[in-house]
Specification:
Pfam families: Spore_GerAC. Residues 8-98 form the Spore germination GerAC-like C-terminal domain. It is built from 4 helices and 2 strands, in the order E-H-H-H-H-E. The protein has helices at residues 25-52, 60-67, 69-74, 77-80, and strands at 2-14, 85-97. The longest helix is centred in the middle third of the chain and has 28 residues, at 25-52.
Length: 101
């Protein structure tokens, strides 16, 4: 069973950037992708550690219970939680760039 979880949505403001002009949409997408990849990797590590500790700090069980009751009824949560393949979903959006946007 794979469960995708809306882990975090970041709205980023760039106030100083030494690489070049931040007006380029291609560069903004590259920055968003770089931040997304970094945060995604960290989120996956957090989920992995929580599952190893059998800790449902993110309340995945509560969300399953509320929004996917059929799936919830099939699970023995205390035993199955560590075995569920949880894929955190991270999104990053640059909303401001530079001092003058």
């Amino acid at each position: 069973m794979i469960y995708c979880y809306d882990f975090i949505s970041l709205k980023v403001s760039i106030t100083e950037f030494t690489y070049g002009e931040v007006g380029s949409e291609d560069l903004i997408k590259e920055i968003e992708n770089h931040i997304n990849k970094n945060v995604q990797n960290k989120a996956e590590k957090v989920v992995e550690k929580l599952q190893k500790a059998n800790c449902d700090f993110l309340e995945v069980g509560r969300e399953l219970m509320a929004y996917h009751p059929d799936v919830w009824k099939e699970l023995e949560w205390k035993k199955d939680y560590a075995q569920i393949d949880i894929k955190p979903d991270v999104t990053v959006e640059v909303i401001h760039r530079g001092i003058i946007n």
